[in-house]
Here is the input.
Amino acid sequence: MPGPSATTVRSAPCPEPAIAVSGLAKRFGRGWAVRELSFTVRRGGRVALLGANGAGKTTTIAMILGLLEPSRGSIRVLGAEMPGQRYRALARVNFSSPYVDLPARLTVRQNLAVYARLYGVRDPGARLRELAAELRLEPFLDRPTGRLSAGQKTRVMLAKALVNRPELLILDEPTASLDPDNADRLRSYLDRYAADSGATLFLASHNMAEVERLCDEVLLLKGGRLAARGRPAELVARFGRRDLEEVFLEIAREGTDGDG
Amino acid sequence: MAEPPAHRAVGASLGRIRAMMLRHLYLMTSSWPRVLELVYWPTVQITLWGFIALYLAGRGGGLAGLAAAFLSAVLLWDTFFRSQLGVSLSFMEEMWARNLGHLFVSPLRPFELVLSMFAMSLLRTLIGVGGAAMLAIPIHGFNVVAELGPPLALFFVNNLLFGWSLGLVVSALVLRLGLGAESLAWALVFLVQPVSAVYYPVAVLPEPLQWVAAVLPPAQVFEGMRGLLTEGVFDTARLARALLLNLGWMAVAGTVFVLLLRSARRLGLLLQVGE
Here is the structure.
């Protein structure tokens, strides 16, 4: 996969963190999906949000993006209070998630053209050509998005997430449906994009090898609370385990009878 | 971060509205059955009602004016019906496509989304009703523009506006209740039809329903249309009342949309919608 265009992301004049979360909580009915969550992600940081299914990762991401209103607490994204001041930040943020899709009947080219315009990209055609080359989309640019394989669709979703050259890129399970070869190419691409542009990466993943490769910090959620936090190597050392996966399993299974 | 100058903000806003219209135009032109569907039902309606009206007119007794009233009513009713569907279907397309999550984390403002739905609704209505109106000329020898004259534009605009208001309410309800409630897009229109006095005067309705008709803009439109065709009188006060009622209904619909969108944001519905 060719390298991402380097001089793409606007510089960040604001010294505030990319994400600042304080006392965040979300209640659905009688249960709490997220409780008393506080953390910051520095500009240019690469942070992974880990946790078992139902730990509160997607809820947290939805609140950070302003899609979900918190029950308590505050969130600032690129200096803007969420969700109240979201339009000050949203043009500089983007995301992809398996929980949302692109219109299936529109071709890849049409979908990317629409989103380029929604994000106010100056030369949508040029940006589209750039993304098509970098993410190898050319063979299926004029195919309806609904007719793509899972791997092709993942690359298209990433292209949509990069269309505005975001300062903050939020990815939920970015390589979940990719084969090892494509997953490796995509991780290399994200690695270069973050390094070249100085963008902040915030991703939720169940793939520990991916997290160790891409991220310099890990937030581990359990039952909606922050159970552990640190650099991947630090966490491995602190828990006396061989790798991050073992740390994840220890925390996820702590206090459970092991049957899921 | 400094706010952009007003003219640049307006330009950006128009750009996002155009982007959403482009999205729906791509969809519309991607399949010929979709384009055909736009003109199919209005054409079936005008053909069927046209023959019924001609049959009645052929029986004499001053029914010729009634035939024109029937055909005009069919076209103006379809204006309301198509404009409502134009808004609610545009919104439901995003839900069917599971695209709302992407749209609501983009810089697109809810009012821009709504304006793009209104613009697409106008286009769909003009294609559908305009096609049927043109077809009525060779088939039935009926030209709605010649029959109603300039007031036609006011009748059209009033029914269009009320269709938009109802479409906005339907969209908000489907967002809040889920796609299981999508049949509301058709059901609510037909709930309004009997009290809109489309094919008969308001005086025919029982008194309590006449009170309901008094606050519905389409009832004012159809009464005004009949007055123009049968008595040659254009009641400007009635049309002004229809316009005021429309402004009121638009305010109500906008409030419902904003409140239910806020509720969807609180309940996490923007990420979970879709089939």
Notes: The mean pLDDT of chain B is 90. The interface with chain A takes residues 1, 12, 15-16, 18-20, 22-23, 26-27, 30-31, 93-94, 97-109, 262, 265-268, 270-272, 274 of chain B (CB under 8 Å). The radius of gyration of chain B is 20 Å. Chain B has one domain: 12-272.
